[in-house]
Amino acid sequence: MKGEVDKGLKFLETTETDWQVHFSEKDRWQELLRVTLPHTNDHVMVFNDVHFLMASLGAQETDASQRPLEGLCDVGQ
Q: With the C-alpha atoms ordered 25, 54, 65, 41, is the resulting torsion angle positive or negative?
């Protein structure tokens, strides 16, 4: 069994660069914000609200961060 694990790890090491995605971190956060922004007032699940907040914070959009943050505060009360 150990031999198979070693083979798998070696395969991962040799193909690691093929799996790396090259993108601008700022662009990625902006794309996530674009997708999540229409749903920031849905409040279906706290899990979603937290992730919407993370997307807006990652995109450094202070105004967009306020909406999910207020929703989370309302749920907490």
A: positive
The alpha carbon torsion through 20, 24, 29, 34 (nearest 10 deg) reads: -110
Task: State how many domains the chain has.
Answer: 1
Name the residue range of residue 67's domain: 20-76
Token couple for 27:
């662009």
What does 26-41 look like in DSSP terms, one character per residue?
HHHHHHHHHHHGGGTT
Better-predicted residue by pLDDT, 77 or 29: 29
Which tokens hold the place of 57?
């914070």
Q: What pLDDT is recorded for position 69?
A: 85
Which tokens sit at 65? 């961060």
**pTM for this entry:** 0.62
